[in-house]
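Provenance

Sequences were taken from public entries as deposited. Structures were produced by running a predictor on each sequence independently, with no templates supplied. The record for DNA-binding transcriptional regulator, AcrR family from Streptomyces harbinensis is shown for reference.
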Amino acid sequence: MQSNPEPAGRKKPSFIEQARRTQIVDAAAEVVAEVGYARTSFARIAEKAGISKGVITYHFDSKDEILRQVVTRFFDQGWQHMEDRISAAESAAGQVRAWIGSQLEFFGAHRTQFLAMSDIMANHRTEDGSHAYASELAEEVSALAEILARGQRDGEMRPFDPHSFATMILHCTNGVLESWAMDPGIDLATESAALLDFIGHAIGREPS
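Predicted structure for DNA-binding transcriptional regulator, AcrR family:
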């Protein structure tokens, strides 16, 4: 998922303006995590940030624009954390482990942002009513499916449908994170190790 450019007609923000926009986006993430997508408003974001609603409308045209930035910025930060770790793995199986492990590691260190991102992605719709992030999620599935397909070609992994397994792996990973986000008492490190072991057995070749 790539960051969206500035809306048409808006000049590139200065350093100070960008800092203010970041403050607003961070406040919005906290509000969504605390009260949910449906109850998030300019008023609540302004109160959390300690600014007026007028300051928000100066920097953003709509609540949707702010929430889009919450998701895009956090997703981009997460991918930056994951990308080097995935690339450093020499085998396809290693890249799958690096993908899942680094994703759990990054999101696990940012509980508030994960709660906000998950809620926004589940509820945010386009004007025609479709899911706003369907294309980004499809790209993520395709990228992981390519790694799985390469693992099969290289003889590391058993036969299965790469796209279906990529979808299931990402859903399982998200499920672990959602359970932990709702119950901080869950040991995410233990759950992560169990998930990686489960996925390893699911995709690996059986010993001959």
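The domain at 13-60 is CATH 1.10.10.60 (Arc Repressor Mutant, subunit A).
The chain has a mean pLDDT of 91.
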